[in-house]
Amino acid sequence: MRSKSELIIAEALASVGIAFEYEKPLCLGGSSSYPEFTIDDEISGRTVFWEHLGLLEREDYRRGWEKKQAWYRSQGVLPRNEGGGPNGVLVTTSESGLGGFDSASVQTVIHKYLNG
Predict the structure, then answer these.
(1) What is the C-alpha to C-alpha distance for residues 101 and 103, in angstroms, rounded to an integer?
(2) CATH number reported for the structural domain that contains residue 66 in this entry
(3) Is the pLDDT score of 108 beyond 80?
(4) Which domain holds residue 30?
């Protein structure tokens, strides 16, 4: 894991028995990306790609994320709140210097998006 927050996510997923792959290459449309977590959701039969956005306060990071988010959309990977897409569901978490990040928020995301 590249960050403490990613470790929190990985431990939370493992603690409820959700198998995942970390930074598994995602190749679509002739290009590749490396989502932090790839989860094959057996209940829905869909693939969930979980990205943790830890530095959105930095302009360069935010621009990079906007580009990556547009790539996901163009490849048919859409946010869960939009019903997902034909090539997967995108779930994101974020943190800031003001709000931080904790395991309770991760548990909420797991319950909301991966356990029903």
Answers:
(1) 7
(2) 3.40.960
(3) yes
(4) 4-114
